[in-house]
Specification:
The protein is built from six helices and eight strands. With 186 residues, the protein is of the alpha+beta class. The N and C termini lie far apart (50 Å).
């Protein structure tokens, strides 16, 4: 099954209660909040909050509803490893437009593209490219791992109730995070 990236109409986004209810539906059904930019046909750049849900959730809760009636199109992304992407225009007339593959890229590359999606949960930018190879630096995953370690260390320091063996482990992790060789590596 594919995933759908879409936005909620601006008049609905201004209504906090309605927006909160819709975001709850999205979150409870495994979706996520994204940020995005696209360039409209007239050249205007549009920045908006967008959402990723499964195609099943899209059709069950969002397709044809008044809170997405002003949307020109949605982005459909296959679940295969290539993440094939195409725009589906909601006017019922315009044919789908194949955009290539949704590809993880470095932030600088995304900002230069006419359209991108940003996943704030994983701090990743995505654009559609004909080439399925990611241009993001390989160390992104390592950096993300170190950030998680850093959060873990902060939690250990905050709680302070752990025994000396856990504190020693935390110190070793701090040395790794700081790109120092820990004392247990000879």
């Amino acid at each position: 099954m594919a995933n759908v990236i879409f936005a909620i109409d601006r008049h609905v986004s201004a209504n906090f209660v309605t927006l909160t209810a819709l975001e709850t539906i999205i979150r409870e059904r495994g979706g996520k909040k994204l940020q995005g930019k696209y360039t409209h046909k007239d050249g205007t750049e549009v920045y908006e909050r967008s959402y990723l849900v499964s195609e099943d959730v899209w059709f069950k809760h969002f397709a044809g509803q008044p809170y997405v009636s002003e949307q020109e199109s949605i982005l459909i992304v296959s679940e295969c490893n290539k993440q094939y992407a195409h725009l589906r225009y909601l006017d019922g007339v315009t044919p789908d437009e194949h955009l290539g593959c949704l590809t993880h890229v470095a932030a600088e590359d995304a900002r230069e593209a006419p359209a991108w999606s940003y996943d704030p949960l994983h701090n990743r930018f995505f654009i559609c490219t004909e080439n399925s190879q990611s241009s993001a630096p390989a160390e992104d995953d390592a950096v993300a791992m170190w950030k998680l370690f850093d959060q873990y260390l902060a939690d250990i320091e905050y709680r302070g109730a752990y025994g000396p063996h856990v504190r020693r482990f935390a110190e070793d992790l701090k040395e790794l995070v700081a790109n120092k060789k820990p004392r247990w590596i000879k």
